[in-house]
Amino acid sequence: MAPERQNQDVFYLEKISRQFTGGIAIEIAMARIRLRDKILISGPSGCGKSTILGLLSLSLRPDRGKIFLCNQIDILDKWRLNRRDDLAMIRASLFGFIPQTAGLIPFLTLQDNILLPQHLIAKQDQSWFEHLVKRLEIASIISKKPHEVSVGQRQRAAVARALINRPFIVLADEPTASVHPSLADEILQLLIETVAESNSALIMTSHDTQRTLKYGLTEVACQLDPQNQTTRLVCNV
């Protein structure tokens, strides 16, 4: 069961680090996120922005540090005890993720793709589903499969899927990278508004910093140290 939504830190990280082969390292000195925070992680291509999202999404195990969700769930303890099922359930119930290219399952309809996170945690909220597909203007195409709709429509479906469980945290990895610039503002506007409606925190990456910051996000820039191949992030809002 998800913790109560209170005005508290929903996500707290301290001194997180992960070493990769070749000497490359990712460090998160501090990250404190509350509900309705909107964070943009910026930085040059190849600096590790997507890898940082992997750590934040609990998909990559840090070598050391502290991660707490809602001041009560010790994520590093779950990793130490190899509680992968617990981690998977936390990701499904408390997180929503939007990959760069929508990441929809090709043999499922848009409706089944959107509802899949609810099935994973045995949840049903038909009214919220109907609200999302109407709000994102895809209600008329939800019976179609991903290859039958446009790139922009697939991204909208990915936004709906990420929000279907009303997650505490939405992680978006370059959500407009695969769409034409004429669609980027539309998708960003819908993403920001629907995240606000679900009372979630948003953490996203983007190569288009100037465009994204128009929507009220707080920029946190990756600090790349080329000498020791380390990317460092400090996010204390």
TrEMBL record:
Q: Which Gene3D superfamilies match?
A: P-loop containing nucleotide triphosphate hydrolases
Task: Reply yes or no: does the keyword ATP-binding apply.
Answer: yes
For this UniProt record, the keywords arranged alphabetically read as follows: ATP-binding, Nucleotide-binding
| Stored Pfam families | ABC_tran
What InterPro entries would the database entry show?
AAA+_ATPase (IPR003593), ABC_transporter-like_ATP-bd (IPR003439), ABC_transporter-like_CS (IPR017871), ABC_transpr_LolD-like (IPR015854), P-loop_NTPase (IPR027417)
Reading the lineage from the top rank, the first entry is Bacteria
Annotated GO MF terms: ATP binding
Record-given protein name: ATP-binding cassette domain-containing protein
